[in-house]
Amino acid sequence: MKSILNKIDRSWMDKYNYPLVISGPCSAENEIQVLKTAKQLTKISGVNVFRAGIWKPRTKPNSFEGVGEIGLKWLNKVKMQTGLMISTEVANSEHVKLCIDYNIDILWIGARTTASPFSMQEISEALEGTDKIVLVKNPIHPDIELWIGGLERLYNKGIRKLGMIHRGFYIYKNPKYRNQPNWNFLMDIKKIIPNIPILCDPSHICGNRVEIPEISKIACNYFKCDGLMIETHYNPNKAWSDSNQQITPDRLFDILTTIKYNNKINNLYILRVLIDELDENIISIISKRMNISKKLGKVKKTGNIPVLQSNRWNIIIDKYINMSKDLGISNKFIIKIFELLHKESIRIQNNIIVDN
Ligand code: PEP
Ligand code: MN
């Protein structure tokens, strides 16, 4: 896959210290909260940009949907009083126009908006003729072409200071992350557009405070992301949106001390993270498979059907041997794995049948 973005120039990003740290509350709530959080952030060296959502794309209606235009005035006060650059999320041309009027330095596009080509086109047209920095979050599902396509729409309208934000991908009933990180996917992006600055948003990946330090380290120290977007609030428990994942500026400071500067890509570690990511998927798929075995056990019990049906087993094992040939996996290995899975499934079904 080729992209016009392979010509992209990353010099805008190289002007800032590594990593570029964008931080502030999920949502601007009131002037005091915005200024208090920003002032605490200025005590931390390494934070370059203040963030606050003014228009909030909420999943469900009747939630807090942002304070609107007045929040742009508060952001300007942040800039005047702290010297931080200011950023907010835009989702349509009206938002873009207001951000231009209020001199917002960096605009970002949220996951739900990136997924809509109409919105991306409208935003790109509204930005034409400006030299804004625009960061595009990944769409909610891992569609590489849709993400790159959104950036290409901006590029076509003359926007050159572009970057991407990895905020993870939604997976139904994911026990660990609000949005699953996908480092494999990022490696593929780097192959297609090697120069594009990529930031990571551990807050929306994790959805909780516990995992944020680890994801920040993986992103910067091993995958060499160019920056971080992390949600902070002077009082996270009282936040009006995404309260579970916001941290205090002090906690952000602890995280930044673990980030290595001028790091080199550590190939061994990267390969291990990629393997771990796949292993976690394997475990979750095995668990889903065994849950279906329980249901099978119940159906067979009710229908008085024998657990072991060698005809079915022969058909599936032949199918998987053929598949494994095409994928370059050894036959013997596939047979061993499926014998194990099958044995465990039979054990589970037998347990259901003898259990009254
Ligand atoms: C946000 O940054 O507050 C936000 C809504 O992010 P996302 O688009 O990643 O959900
Ligand atoms: Mn948020």
Q: Determine the strand fraction and express it as a percent band.
A: 5-15%
Structural class: alpha/beta
Name the CATH class of the largest domain. Answer: Alpha Beta
CATH superfamily of the largest domain: Aldolase class I
Structure description:
The protein has 356 residues and is an alpha/beta fold. The protein has two domains: 4-256, TIM Barrel; 267-354, Chorismate mutase (Chorismate Mutase Domain, subunit A), CATH 1.20.59.10. 50% of the residues lie in helices and 10% in strands. The chain has helices spanning 11-14, 31-42, 70-82, 93-101, 111-114, 117-127, 144-156, 183-192, 202-206, 212-222, 249-257, 267-303, 310-326, 331-354, and strands spanning 20-24, 47-51, 85-89, 106-109, 133-137, 162-166, 198-200, 227-231. The protein has an eight-stranded parallel beta barrel, surrounded by five helices. Helix 13 packs antiparallel against helix 14. The protein is elongated. The mean pLDDT is 94. The structure holds phosphoenolpyruvate (PEP) and manganese (II) ion. Residues 26, 231, 241-242 line the site of manganese (II) ion. Manganese (II) ion binds next to loops.
